[in-house]
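ok here's the first one, seq then struct tokens
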Amino acid sequence: QVQLVESGGGLVQAGGSLRLSCAASGNVFAFNTMGWYRQAPGKQREFVARISRTGSTVYADSVKGRFTISRDRDRDEVFLHMNSLKPEDTAVYYCWGITVTEYWGQGTQVTVSS
């Protein structure tokens, strides 16, 4: 059974940086695409960024120029480098991956203080 496990969340001041990591474990097949979503309190889960197996990336407008997604294809790991963080980036961040099935991590909390 495949599991996605996130790490790297925490508390940071506005303008600071964090790096989130997500590792796949279990009976891993090569993920076609991996990415990140987030959910702030009282809001729906929203797309943040994704990266294909070939390295193509897509970002939400709200994070363009501040966040960078990268991937270790050999290990099916994905990273989210977050710079210039804002209080509105506060959310639980979820790792996501898809083969023929979607997989989700349990989430990691990111809190940005003003």
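and now the second one, same deal
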Amino acid sequence: QVQLVESGGGLVQAGGSLRLSCAASGSIFSPNAMGWYRQAPGKQRELVATITRGGSTNYADSVKGRFTISRDNAKKTVYLQMNSLKPEDTDVYYCNADITGRSYWGQGTQVTVSS
């Protein structure tokens, strides 16, 4: 059974940094694309950043220049380094992985940025 386990969320002041991690387990296959999404209560889940197995990245305009996505294929782990955090970055962040064409989600980790 495939599982995505996230860690690294928390409370930080505006201007601070956090690093999220997400490790995939339960599959012998390495994920294709991996990514981070976020969702506020009552709103749709939105893309934050994605990264292919080859390292190509894509970012939401709102996080470009502040967030960096990376991955360790050997560890089946994706990271999101978040710098210069703003109160509007407050959300639940979800990890996503495409494994053999099927999409999997993590349980979500709360990120709260205080002003």
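notes on #2: DSSP finds no helices and eleven strands in the chain. The chain has a mean pLDDT of 95.
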